[in-house]
Sequence to fold (310 residues):
Amino acid sequence: MLGTEVAREVAQQARLVLGERVQAAYAIGSLAHGGFVATTSDVDVGLIVDGGAMSPQMHRRIVLTTRERCPGELSELLSLHWTDWEHVGADSAPGRFRPLDRTDLLRHGRLLMGEDRRGLAVEPARPARLADITSFTLQVLGSTENMSLLRDPAALCDRGHRRASKAVLLPVRLLWHVETDCLGSHEAAAAWHRTQGGAEADLVAAALGWRRSGRIQGQGLDALLRGVEAYAAAKETQQQVRGQAEVLGEGAQLAPAAPGLRHFASLAENQVLEGAQTQPAGEEHTLQLGVPPESGPGEQLAHEVLQRPA
Fold:
């Protein structure tokens, strides 16, 4: 079964559960802008729902029914996002739809159902997107779980190709957007990254191979070990990142040990956070199946995002 078929089934189930409140449904992420890999990628679906609200029970019903009707690995990799048309371009929005993902919908989304009204919408403001990326970086990429794995490459490889490739490639995609305002595939982000001459280029190339092949190939662990060494940064950079964490109210204990992560410290030197209203990372960001978090929001978010495939 193709990823688009699963996405269409999600849209149909959303209509059955929510009725006419579902005004439009879109495939987003790699299903929309390219680079979808059936053994690795998420099936990302964005819903435009009148009023922007959906209960956890409704969310669960849509996902579980889709999995029953579309059995297989792809249906286990659903990621559902929703808000309303009135807030799709706002800095903050009801429902569960991060500013960067809403920007992806407006630029690349593939209409699955309903009326396409994107021509009337504006993108979330760039400062809001960058502040959201910064918060995500600190709370997810800088989480205790993620940082401990990055410091233990063998343990990261033991988690499999999905987890390892996401740990390497996700920061590259975020950095690409920060530096260029582009959104797109991992391959496009990696191609840009190569032009920057980073020490981690070999690792990024290796992670692309893991993602495509569905396995960590022969020299993957060696590349990861070399890459993690290359990501060690100066104390002043760590202090800048920690200082930015304090601005966000998180106080994250973070060492920039993922590709491109150290570059986010430079955001503190411009207007990204000036006047931007950032939400603490919570269940509306990436919570799967509407299950309430059992731990603190930052750690729960990190677990859910990083367990999802790249």
Remarks:
- The beta strands are 22-28, 43-49, 78-83, 110-114.
